[in-house]
Amino acid sequence: MKSKLPIQYLNYGFALLFLAFIAWFKWQHHELWKDEWQAWFVAKDKSIGDMLSFLYYEGHPALWYVYLKVFSIFANGSNDLLLLNVAHLLTVAGGLYLLFIRLRLPLLVKVMVALSYFLLFEYGIVNRGYYLVIVFVFWAAYLLSKKEYNAQMLAVVLFLLCQTEVYGVLMAIALGFYLLHQQYTSGQKLLSKPIWGLILGLGVFVISVFPREWGHIGRTSPQTWTWSQKLLVAIQGNLTNTYMPGATLDTFTYGSTALGLILAVLILVAMYYIFRKDKALLLTMAMFLLAVIAFSALIFTGGIRQWGMGFVFFVAMLAVRGWVWDKDKVVAGIVAVFCVFNMVYAFKAVREDYRIPFTNAKAAGLFIKAKVPEKVPVVALNKFDATPVIGYSGRKFYELPDGVPFSFFRWVDKIYVPTEPELQLFGKFKGVGGIILLSSSPIDAGRFPSAVLWQKFDALNYKNESYFIYTLSVQ
């Protein structure tokens, strides 16, 4: 017992250290982008029923939104950023606790995983729901790594995993296959409590998420790629970009390359070597990889944010497998290579987020908050770009032709650019002497001859997103 105490203390210490760093960086340096604000406003500004119906357009399961809904109860109009950061940090704390305290992995591996691009930056610093996937897949891995586990608890975990993200659903299906294999080979009944939890989770996922319209999915995929090119992109993205990010150029932007595909094949060989001694885990990992590649090739291409879920699942499967660092040096070397690539990529991402703002939305939002009286309406000419500015300004903007306030958008909406007479009419209706126009690009002087540029926010930023604020007198 005495020999294990220092290691346990180190595990807790590292978990707290990583959580503290992520919290500090969030508050001091990270600027939230529109999809970070989007989920918060959907949860905050819609009733539970309307929110769940709205998920058809978001394409995400309900758990992150339901979770945020609880925190939105305490919103008072000025603490949105605080509540969103706290809500996300609690999921990060849960994931780090499971990684450092519960998973059967060497401490050095845990530290490298925590330093990976995905757990540190993409899912840790950026406020999205992906850490809920990490929490539940790590929880499932912890339960499955035990000789005797609570079947009812695993059923709940698999159900909730299906309500996190689409990739969480694919993880749950792969874990269900692992369970069925284990139960079949041991002569147990196949329809156990965990399998029923999985089935129920899949049912709720399909009912709540399966989109009525797929146009927004098509728009996010490169239209010029043929099916064979999409397949190669899916293979390289879900392998090379996931386990060796930075080894090639970004696959979504530049497509597949010979080097990227060669590395993908080598990664598959490495996967086989790692799990070759456990047929069930080998087949489970193979099934998951086939599922995510098929999903990327046929439905949603995705990008490194989505592909990184594969790295998370790989870590979970390593924990189920269990191993000792110095007794399996080849496996240790492979895992180290994957982690080193991730760590270097994480360092670059954190450095970039520290060096320049993510967008100019925060600067524009704070300017509006300080300079524009509440009674003066702000009209967004492109509502898709306005959500993060709304978040930092602490007020809703207006859209035309409806003339109603908004805080979030629907992916299937079309952009309506009003005319100057329409804006004048809206200003008269609101009973003000002038209105503010927000645009993500310089506006057409011929269309809006009376609009006067007040301030522009076009400094260097990561997403190359600028904002222009105009005044328009109401005559």
Description:
The chain has helices at residues 5-28, 34-45, 48-58, 63-72, 80-102, 107-114, 117-125, 130-144, 151-161, 166-185, 193-209, 215-219, 227-243, 251-254, 258-275, 279-298, 304-307, 309-321, 329-355, 361-371, 387-393, 420-430; strands at 378-380, 397-399, 404-406, 434-439, 452-457, 467-473. It is mainly alpha-helical and 475 residues long. The protein folds into two domains: 5-355, no CATH class; 361-473, no CATH class. It is elongated and about 80 Å long.
Q: Helical segment tally? A: 22
Strand content: 5-15%
Mean pLDDT across the residues is: 91
Instruction: Work out the radius of gyration.
Output: 24 Å
User: Low-confidence parts, pLDDT < 50 over ≥5 residues?
Assistant: 214-219
Mass-distribution shape: elongated
What structural class do the secondary elements suggest? mainly alpha
Task: Name the assembly state.
Answer: single chain
Distance between the termini: 81 Å
Number of strands: 6
The largest sheet has its strands arranged as 1-4-6-5
Helix content: 55-70%
- Tally of individual domains: 2
Q: Main sheet?
A: 4 strands, mixed
Return the string of H and E elements. HHHHHHHHHHHHHHHHHHHHEHEEHEEE
